[in-house]
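The records we work with from here on pair a chain with its fold. Here is one such record, which you should read through line by line:
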Amino acid sequence: MRRRSAQPEWEGQWPPLPELHHADVSHAAGGLWCHAKTDALESDRGSHMHNTLELGWMLRGAKRYRIGDARAMIVRPGDMWFCTMWEPHSWEVLRPHTDFVSINLSPEVLIETVGALSWFRVFAVPASQRPRITDPGLRRLVRTVGGELHQEIAQHQRGWQARLQLGLGYLLALYLRDWPADAYPESLPPDRVSRLGRVMPAVSLAAVKPGVRIDRREAARACSVSPSRFHGLFREAMGLTFEQFCRQARLAYARHLLLTSQLTVAAIAGQTGFAGESHFHRAFAEHHGCTPAVYRRYLGAPPELTHPRPLYVDHTTEDMDESRASG
C-alpha cells in the first residue's frame, strides 16, 4: 500500500485556493466549451479526442497524462496541457479529489483571446515539443489565476465568458514565457491579428474536413481572396503555409484512425489524402519519428497506462448541460 502525506511536496507553501465546492460543471458559449471538474476517485481514467483545440490546467491533486506522441507526464497543480484537433490523449487520476479546468475551443476564439501572440505554434508542434512551465513562481501564478477561472465557470454569473477569455489570454502568455524565442515570436506586426481573422474560414474548413486534401483555391474562395493573396496572408498569420497546416491536420486524423479503426495503413493513407502508402509512411515518420504501424502498436496499449480506445467527442453544438462527464 502506498503511503500518502496530507500535503504533497509540490503544494507546500502555496497560497490556499478559493473554495471550489468540488462541483462538476460544464458550460458552452461563443465557441468555448468549459469544464470545471473534480475527479473524486483515485485511478479514474479515460481517453478521448475531439474536433476542437483543448487547453487545461491543474488546480489540486495530480493526473498522469499522455498526449499525442509525447511520453506520459505527471500533471500537478500549476501545470497546463494542450491538445490539438484530432489528437488522442488519455489520463489517469493519481490522487483523489483532483480539481482541474479544461477548455475546448474553436480556433477563432483565440484571435480574441490572445491578440498578437503567436498562439498557433503551441498547438502546431508535436506534443513532445510543446513547452512546460518550470518556474515555481509561474506555476503558483497559473494555479491562482486558474482557480479564479474555475470559479467563473462554476458560478456562471453575468459576464463570465468575457472574464474567462481575458484569463485564458493571460495564462497562455505565462505558458509561452518559458518557450525559446526562436520557437515563438514575442509579438507580431499590428495587422497580424486582422490577418488571422481573414484566414480563419480556411482553418475551419481544414478542421471539419480533416481527411480531405483541400486545394488552395478552395481555401482562398472560403476567405474571399485570390489564391496568391491567400498564400501570403496565411503564412504571415499562422507562421506556416496552408499546405503545411493541412498536412498536420491530415496526420492528426490519421492518428485517430490508427487508434480507433481496424483499417490497414494503406487504407488510412487513402482516407487522409496522401498519394499512397509510401508517401504517408514518409510524412508520418518525419512528423512523429516512427512508422504508422509502430505508432499504432505502441499507443494502442501503452505499458504504463492501460486505457480504452480514444472516444471521439464532437464539439459542434453549444447545448451543454451540467454533467459529471470526466475529461
Summary: Confidence is low (pLDDT under 50) at residues 1-6, 185-190, 301-307, 321-327. The domain at 13-176 is CATH 2.60.120.10 (Jelly Rolls).
